[in-house]
Amino acid sequence: MSPKILDSAELDAREQVMLRSAFQLIAEEGVSGLTIDKLVNRIPYSKGTVYNHFSGKEDLLTGLCIEALEHLSHLFQRAAAYPGNSRERITAIGFAYMLHAQINPVAFMLVITAKTPSIWEKTSDKRQQAYQQKEDQLLQVFLQVICDAISVGDLSLPASFSESDVAFALWANCFGTIALLQEDLERCAVRQNIEMEPAVLRHCSLLLNSFGWLPLHQNPEPTIEQLKTGLFKAEIEQLEQRLTAKGQPL
Amino acid sequence: MSPKILDSAELDAREQVMLRSAFQLIAEEGVSGLTIDKLVNRIPYSKGTVYNHFSGKEDLLTGLCIEALEHLSHLFQRAAAYPGNSRERITAIGFAYMLHAQINPVAFMLVITAKTPSIWEKTSDKRQQAYQQKEDQLLQVFLQVICDAISVGDLSLPASFSESDVAFALWANCFGTIALLQEDLERCAVRQNIEMEPAVLRHCSLLLNSFGWLPLHQNPEPTIEQLKTGLFKAEIEQLEQRLTAKGQPL
DNA sequence: GACTATTTTTGACGGATCGTCATTATAAGA
DNA sequence: TCTTATAATGACGATCCGTCAAAAATAGTC
User: Fold this and answer.
1) B48 and B78 inside one domain
2) With a 7 Å cutoff on the CB, does B5 touch strand D?
3) Lowest-confidence range among A178-182, B80-84, B179-183?
4) Cβ B2 to strand C below 7 Å
5) In chain B, which end has fewer C-beta atoms inside a 10 angstrom radius, N or C?
6) Considering CB atoms only, which of B31, B185, B187 is closest to A118?
7) End-to-end distance of chain B based on CA atoms, in angstroms?
8) Residues A15 and A115 in one domain
9) What is residue A189's predicted lDDT score, i.e. its pLDDT?
10) Could you report the per-residue pLDDT of B2-40, keeping only the tens digit for each?
């Protein structure tokens, strides 16, 4: 039935099937619901074949994370290409990060836990490298906007801050805000009825102001409505669909 | 051998024994190394007895998180009582958060993952409540310092910011910085040779300045050396011991 | 087409872990 | 001493993981 020599297109297609089914399984039953046996029952391949593609459950999870990073990377690149000033663009990236986390909360949490030793150690070298590469891509987008801002004069680096430091400060701030407000972490004491979207934007504004990133704005950033009805219109609609009918795959 | 009717002191003592051994097991073999069977082999109680105390492995993990939050709570309270101005005190809390994460990195990561559905759902109601309570305690310390700062005049709330919003912004910022620089997440692209201590302090300074929290400082906050040689002397030493000889329990 | 060699797929198996529960052990009271 | 309530035990069934020897499928050769 199957060809003797498998071309990489066929292999990729299979991997996609496996990742899709794994994702769906997680969407239905949570991360702990993902089981190799259950997965095998849903796909036209056997357990052994799955293990030809993934070194184990953890490798599969990292595979899903890589897909999530790809999704995020697309959003970032679109945000970075937003036709506005540098402050609007960096804000758009933060906004994109938040959108991603809301559209795909499970993947967002997965990425956090993917680097813990219990998962990372069991990830194949091949996929570890692929993951790192995607992560680098993301950082590059961030850095590009920062460098642009500097060259245009919108931003001048504070003493003892490198471009990377600025990128990291913004990233950590967005990440912390999103992570603590993530729906998975319901009923956190820290988050008392705080809405994610305004919080992320407020925190971005605070930090950008602190860097003296021009043009200085009061929060909320005025450009947000444009992002929601323009650049990220599709994602916003996708998000609203999610809120009405839950449980559908990415 | 055992008394017929167990008083709560005896029960608490047992729970401590179990938690200690679980902690040690994790320190030796990582979170995935914690196994009920292995735990049972190390303590003078049987599996059934363990299950009389904890509803399962996840409940045990949450139990460890509660202990971690208690540790953190002590640090926070000491920081909040630091005899300095309000800005120094809030900075001391952020510093304490970082110290805690460095002294007990596994617990820090555990607390992140504890709220994910796969763990939280399997946690007993009793322990869920205990956890929430500890979390509330932490937030209260934060809020107290913020309210003090306002009443003293060091801080005036920005428009559309409540006290909780300020607390959350600071918390999220510290959390994000620490989490991304956590040693468990080695080789993150975002963190290129960035040291945790200066990063946390820089980010705190940025945010405090953005709030106009008086007295305005350049980073690094000048009070840090005092914290390291005074208030948190013991913890700093503990940390240095950890760096030289790894693997010893909290 | 028959036969061989090579590649690929398969799922049964051993090992490990979980959580339960019938059984055993212990202590208090009569 | 004997009964009874309480607590501790660990054997057991169920589940899941990852492996590997056997089976299936294909390509090549005559």
Assistant:
1) no
2) yes
3) B179-183
4) yes
5) N
6) B31
7) 31
8) no
9) 57
10) 456 777 888 899 999 999 999 999 999 999 999 999 999
- A61 is a domain residue: no
Give residue A44's domain range. Answer: 7-53
Same domain assignment for residues A148 and A227: yes
Q: Are residues B90 and B18 in the same domain?
A: no
Q: To the nearest whole number, what is the mean pLDDT of chain A?
A: 89
User: Does B61 map to a domain?
Assistant: no
Please tell me whether residues A108 and A11 are part of one structural domain.
no
Q: Is residue A249 part of a domain?
A: no
Each residue's pLDDT tens digit, A83-118: 989 999 999 999 999 999 999 999 999 999 988 999
Distance from the Cα of B32 to chain A's closest Cα (Å) equals 6
In this structure, are B39 and B151 located in the same domain?
Answer: no
Kindly report the bases of strand D lying within 7 A of a protein C-beta atom.
5-11, 15-21, 24-27
A22 confidence band (pLDDT: 50, 70, 90) = very high
Q: Does residue A1 lie in a domain region?
A: no
For residue B35, say whether its CB is under 7 Å from any atom of strand D. Answer: no
One-letter-per-residue 3-state SS of chain B: CCCCCCCHHHHHHHHHHHHHHHHHHHHHHCHHHCCHHHHHHHCCCCHHHHHHHCCCHHHHHHHHHHHHHHHHHHHHHHHHCCCCCHHHHHHHHHHHHHHHHHHCHHHHHHHHHHCCHHHHCCCCHHHHHHHHHHHHHHHHHHHHHHHHHHHHCCCCCCCCCCHHHHHHHHHHHHHHHHHHHCHHHCCCCCCCCCCHHHHHHHHHHHHHHHCCCCCCCCCCCCCHHHHHHCCCHHHHHHHHHHHHCCCCCC
pLDDT at B190 over 70: no
- Kindly state the tokens that stand for B40: 């049972």
State the total domains in chain B: 2
pLDDT at site A56: 96
Q: Which helix (H) or strand (E) holds A81?
A: none
The answer to whether residue A23 scores a pLDDT higher than 80 is: yes
Dihedrals φ, ψ of B207, to 5°? -70, -40
Q: Which CATH number goes with the domain that contains B25?
A: 1.10.10
Q: Are residues B20 and B89 in the same domain?
A: no
CATH of the domain at A158: 1.10.357.10
pLDDT of residue B249: 44
The answer on B214 and B100 residing in a single domain is yes
**Does strand D come within 7 Å of the CB of B117?**
no
* Chain A residue numbers touching B218 (CB-CB < 8 A): 159
Of A168, A175, A210, the CB nearest to B199: A168
CA of A53 to C1' of C5 (A): 25
